[in-house]
């Protein structure tokens, strides 16, 4: 405004500015309310997705293990390893939620193969190995990052660091990190868990087995982190112990085919 000020002009300018300010504040309030509703809606969708994933994981687990806590433990172990590796917090969270779906493809494996207590024939073993691809077929079409991670884990958690795994014979860092993390988590829990076809391995023997497979079955860096965080792993193992399970400090049994299925 130019001097000398005109009283009428000043009043009009002030009124206009106050109207603009009021409109701005209203717009801000609307934006905040919309943001709040979007966050609430996103949270609801995340909870729904999380619930569905838990249900799917439990369904797949009940096919060959009615004790139910294996998939929970695998997810918890996977988060410990993810955090120890220094992955971003939201990725650690997603891996914990996705890892329990690692064996979702077993839904498609016939009971006479999945529940067989003896050694699988070559034909049965090939059929069993198909569960990795079946898992991808079930999950890959969903756009959710969590479900995409679950699909990746389902496909890659049986790959070996030295390239002798399945189904793609990937090796070393070509195996997705989420698959490498879940591989250790899954095998350790299978070893230390009692099943109809095997007794639980003693804890120390299971740890030694994981260490012995560094550089062949497992990522050596992850094995190192696993050992460094073994107290946290054991705490999870005890917190989510199967109700029907005997002590894990039992005489060692021979490693069954079903452990690595």
Provide a descriptive summary of the structure in words.
This protein has helices at residues 7-62, 70-85, 89-98, 111-114, 122-129, 131-139, 145-156, 177-191, 203-212, 220-228, 230-239. The chain is an all-alpha fold. Mean pLDDT is 84; it is low at 246-260. The protein has one domain (7-260): Hypothetical protein af1432 (Orthogonal Bundle). The longest helix is centred in the first third of the chain and has 56 residues, at 7-62. It has eleven helices and no strands. GO terms for molecular function: phosphoric diester hydrolase activity. This is Putative two-component system response regulator.
Helix content: 55-70%
The shape, in one word, is: elongated
In whole angstroms, the N-to-C terminal distance is: 81 Å
State the major sheet: none
Assigned CATH superfamily: Hypothetical protein af1432
- Could you tell me the strand content as a percent range? under 5%
What CATH calls the topology is Hypothetical protein af1432
Q: Flag low-confidence runs.
A: 246-260
Radius of gyration, CA atoms, in whole angstroms = 26 Å
Number of strands: 0
- Provide the domain count: 1
Mean pLDDT: 84
Write down the CATH class: Mainly Alpha
For the structure shown, list the relevant keywords.
mainly alpha; 11 helices; elongated; 261 residues; Hypothetical protein af1432; 61% helix; disordered C terminus; single chain
Q: What can be said about this structure in brief?
A:
InterPro entries: Cyclic_di-GMP/3'3'-cGAMP_PDE, HD/PDEase_dom, HD_GYP_dom. The protein is built from 11 helices and no strands.
